[in-house]
Amino acid sequence: MRHRAYRFRCYPTPEQADNLRRTFGCARLVYNKALEYRHKAYYRRGESITYNQTSAMLTRWKQADRYAYLNEVSSVPLQQALRHLQKGFAAFFKQQTGYPRFKKKRTGAGSAEYTRSAFKWNAGQLTLAKQAEPLTIRWSRRLPVGAVPLTVTVSCDAAGRWFVSLLVEEDIPALPERAEAIGVDAGITNLLTLSTGEQVSNPRHERRDRARIRRRQQALSRKQKGSNNHRKARIELARAYARIADRRRDFLHKLTTRLVNENQVIAVEDLGVRGMLAGHTLARAIADAAWAEFRRMLEYKAEWAGRTVVAVDRFLPTTKTCSACGTLQEAVPLSQRVFECAACGHTEDRDLNAAKNILAAGLAVTACRDGVRH
Q1: In the beta sheet, which residues pair with residue 124?
Q2: Residue 302 and residue 198 share a domain
Q3: Is the pLDDT of residue 12 over 50?
Q4: Are 42 and 53 in contact (CB under 8 A)?
């Protein structure tokens, strides 16, 4: 049994939306106050604060007149905010993530997580705590038969769209095994080059909508801050960005699903995307390609399907190595789009040659269960 989240659009009433926005604000306040207290306690007194201590602090805050409005919303999302902070610190001490940061106040946007004690689920109707009516949900797909949500997360993005995410426990059967294996080389001109010779063109979603973004940014800059027209212009700009993100996510979902369904072993390159984004030459194009999101989707779908994803060392010279004879070239400049081997005379597209080398390295990893060296 695995945990799987199903995300749907929802349409709260004005009263429900007001309650949810106040819940978002209270959860953000509790998270930030607890983070500030833990930060000061450690750096001033060398004291480590636990989740139980912050939970007791929340009780005192709710009893104070200054924060009496915390009692107007459900207490569960506030407790969940403290649990998320605890997870953030645990991941930081394991050196998995950076130090927890304060949550910024974003107009209308935010999220709140409800556990089983804070919602009612009856025949497909979801009623949240502190709300009298069920939440109107657009069921774009079916939940598993007999599934009961473990947690419910309600969120609102900068474009004013409401979403509800239902975490359920589901038995996801593995796909039948296949003999195919594939190597994937990521690029910009072609988003992906597969070792089979197929090239997936880069849709360049951000560049296609760049003119629209520019017009709406200019319109927003002309509006007076705090005015109703400024709010409308901000929402229009957020919708333009949401359009790009939705199209990119949809494209990557379809692409990764196809790769997982058709191949048993998928070898990819372990790219240092964060370091690449630090450079200003190709940072915009790299961000638009969303290589990190592609790999994230590929890995969790492969785990569900019983497939294997192998990340080849980023320092392996896949571009400079001949896929036919294994000869290592001294240098292959980026402007040279055709790989030419001086030893055996093999000529091939640069990215296709790299994809074949990535596949060979990935198969070696699966066979030896060890790293790969040239």
Answers
A1: none
A2: yes
A3: yes
A4: no
- Asked if 122 and 192 sit in the same domain, the reply is no
List active site positions.
Answer: 185, 269, 351
The DSSP output letter for 4 is E
Give residue-wise pLDDT tens across range 235-286.
999 999 999 999 999 999 999 999 999 999 999 998 888 888 887 778 888 8
What's the predicted TM-score (pTM) here?
0.87
What are the tokens at 334? 């980026």
* Percentage of the chain lying above the pLDDT 70 cut: 98
- Between helix 210-221 and helix 228-262 the angle, nearest 10°, is 160
- Same domain for 130 and 190? no
- pLDDT tens digits for range 69-100: 999 999 999 999 999 999 999 999 999 899 99
- Contact assessment for residue 365 and residue 371, using Cβ atoms and an 8 Å cutoff: yes
**Diameter of the chain measured on Cα atoms:** 81
**Are 144 and 8 within one domain?**
yes
Instruction: Provide the token pair at 117.
Output: 């004690």
